[in-house]
Amino acid sequence: MMDLINQHFIQVIATVLVLIATPVIRHLTKTVLRKYAVMKGKTENRTGQVVRLFAVIVNSLAVIILIVIWGVDPHNLLVAISSVFAVIGVALFAQWSMLSNITAGIIIFFTTPFKIGDSIRIVDKDIPFDAKVEDILAFHTHLRTKEGELVTYPNSLFFQKGVMILRIDTWNEETDE
């Protein structure tokens, strides 16, 4: 056993460092994202979704680093990765809109074009409507129309349609009439 450890001493030390650094980096990322969310007035639900996504990214990078440290044969690694990406590619092709909605949800989180409680107008030539933002989730946003209907609006459509933020008094005047 000691002979094996001596033979791979550098890899063992590097692996231990990666295994220690990964949770530390995840914690730092979580702390920074939560401070950003508090500063920008984001909901805990939205913040939790983005924190989980970044944790997956950090964990994936740690696995890649461990693969490099242990010198996995590039040919075998390439075969495994291409097989995984083939399966993922088929799944994403079938669900490409899901990925675009998640990406749009992350962009909305960081750019804050509107926030929960804002009254907005979706500028669509076919079906324009006014609504109040109730919740912003990873895939979609809940909007409440003046008639009280709950609309589940895909996040990716916010980047395909015009969105106007309405003044509060405009929303109230129109709903009072």
Automatic annotation (TrEMBL):
It comes from the Bacteria. One of its GO terms (cellular component) is membrane. The chain crosses the membrane at residues 12-29, 50-72, 78-111. Its main location: membrane. This is Mechanosensitive ion channel. Residues 98-161 form the Mechanosensitive ion channel MscS domain. It comes from Dysgonomonas macrotermitis. GO terms for molecular function: mechanosensitive monoatomic ion channel activity. SUPFAM superfamilies: Sm-like ribonucleoproteins (SSF50182). It is found in: Membrane. InterPro entries: LSM_dom_sf (IPR010920), MscS_archaea/bacteria_type (IPR045275), MscS_beta-dom_sf (IPR023408), MscS_channel_2nd (IPR006685).
